[in-house]
Design brief:
The protein is of the alpha/beta class. It has eleven helices and nine strands. The protein has two domains: 11-249, Spore Coat Polysaccharide Biosynthesis Protein SpsA, Chain A; 251-345. The longest helix has 60 residues, at 286-345.
Length: 346
């Protein structure tokens, strides 16, 4: 088979190639820029990252923009990909499924993240030391970089995740991230909006992937540019996403907590009934007795549900890892074969 066959085959599968080089010698780097109405900044962002990473291919994913974002991105030299379904989650799903590279760097198109830190963010992934790297913003940022309550919301979210997953996270909601192929090919993108960064972080922690954080300065949007993030609506969605993902990835702990609460409440109400019966020989509050029994039954059912789902979850994770390993093995075999065919033709 020839290298051209592989390229045609991957295009038919929806993959957009960057280069034909291998990870070890010349890693294929893709810069992924999600944009929705970022005409004021997208051109500068593309030019800055082209200068910082001249060997990379710059992709701009235009998410149903109504301004000149698409035209300006193309004029700056980016490869444009249209994503008509609105929402950052839909954009990330397109990024992870439609671009083929060895290393992926995602950055927002609002010109708040520095291009000169790109290599620092990529370094742990390129060295094989991390599956995902997050450019953390909270250590160095301009006073006007965060809108009111955004900094507080970020701290609440990272505190919840750190407590639930027994880890320490500096910045959960950063849009400046680097990934390796294993992460990109194995993550099932379920979110639709700005909760996607939370989903990425929880997925990495739940799957035991290596996560690194690199501090980066965070700037303010230029005058006339506005954030699409809604503080309370998107904050609620992020917290809801954490709850659902915790239930999905840690079902025994989630339902175990529900079971413990119900069992303790049932025992408490039951103790009232038993004490009354021991003192008077009568049960004057049968509804309390019924409530106690119901709570104990619910607790036992919750515990059983957690045990069953935990077993199913483990088997599902094993299957996911096996499938991911197969995909990566096929890709690693294909790249050297394509290089050999190209050398033979020369």
């Amino acid at each position: 088979m020839t290298a051209g066959f592989f390229r045609r085959h991957d295009r038919q599968c929806g993959l957009l190639h960057t280069t034909d080089s291998t990870m070890t010698e010349h890693p294929r780097i893709a810069v992924l820029i999600p944009c929705h109405n970022e005409a004021l900044t997208v051109g500068k962002v593309v030019r800055d990252f082209r200068a910082a990473l001249p060997e990379a291919v710059i992709y701009v994913f235009d998410n149903a923009s109504t301004d000149d974002t698409a035209a300006l991105a193309r004029a700056a030299g980016a490869t444009l990909v249209a994503v008509p379904a609105k929402g950052k989650g839909h954009v990330v799903r397109s990024m992870f499924r439609d671009v083929d590279a060895d290393v992926f760097l995602m950055v927002d198109g609002d010109d708040t993240y520095p291009a000169d830190r790109a290599r620092a963010v990529l370094a742990p992934v390129l060295a094989g030391e991390a599956d995902m790297v997050v450019g953390t913003r909270l250590e160095a940022h301009e006073d006007s970089a965060f809108r009111r309550f955004h900094g507080l919301g970020n701290r609440v979210v990272r505190g919840v995740i750190s407590r639930l997953f027994n880890t320490s996270i500096a910045d959960v909601l950063s849009g400046y991230r680097a990934f390796n192929t294993r992460f990109v090919r194995s993550m099932p993108v379920l979110s639709q909006g700005f909760e996607i960064e939370t989903e990425m972080t929880v997925f990495a922690l739940a799957q035991g992937m290596t996560l690194r954080e690199v501090p980066v300065p965070y700037g303010s949007r230029p005058e006339g540019s506005h954030s699409k993030l809604h503080t309370f609506r998107d904050g609620y969605r992020v917290l809801r996403t954490i709850g659902f993902l915790y239930k999905d990835y840690r079902p025994l702990k989630f339902f175990g907590l529900v079971a413990l609460a119900c069992l303790l409440a049932g025992i408490g109400f039951g103790a009232i009934v038993v004490r009354e019966f021991a003192l008077t020989g009568l049960v004057t509050h049968p509804s309390t007795a019924v409530l106690a029994v119901a709570l104990v039954l619910i607790g036992m059912l919750s515990l059983a549900t957690g045990l069953i789902l935990d077993t199913v979850n483990r088997r599902s994770q094993e299957l996911l890892r096996l499938l991911t390993d197969q995909v990566l093995m096929q890709a690693s075999r294909k790249a050297p074969a394509a290089d050999r065919d190209a050398t033979d033709r020369v």
